[in-house]
Design a protein that fits this description.
25% strand; 30% helix; alpha/beta; globular
Amino acid sequence: MTTRTESVDTPAGEARITWHRAPEPALVLAVSHGAGGGIEARDLRALAAAMPARGITVALVEQPWRVAGKKVAAAPKVLDEGWRGLWPALAESGLPVVAGGRSAGARVACRTAAELGAAGVLALAFPLHPPGRPEKSRAAELTGAGRPALVVQGGRDPFGRPEEFPPPGAQDPYELVEVAFADHGFAVPKKADTTQEDALLTITEAVGEWLGRLPV
């Protein structure tokens, strides 16, 4: 695996891509961070470490607001603008690109996947609704992605527990994998009947298996 970071100019400002390249990649998995953190998130780091051995290049994307050192995420329209602006750099190799992200980054991937021609969507800790506000559902973003999708969700995520998600329909075929006992950041309590390492393994195994089945 080789690692390289590049800056990309977008209409929303300078973005950054950190590449974790597979020796002989079959596709690119591009994943961005959420509104409360960066690419150091445990799930993103775990994917970057595990996927290249499976023939998958991982591109960890830092949105312009994060690169600029701002504390508050940009508006959804601006996030989408930044993602669209850096997409050509993600697709430059000619390999299929799966659009992904965690939390707010997952919403961006869902909203833009069809227009950008993504091979699929990976939604990590999809924020189905604000905590305590299930009536403010964002399910339409997920079900309207227009691409095969995988949701990986913590069993105790206050932004939406797995059982709160709508059943996938014929027109919105997504799969959902639960990470037992995990919260929105996929952290598990020390008293849980599992370990943090097992939680991350659940994520990487589920994502690797799903990517291996994508019709690319």
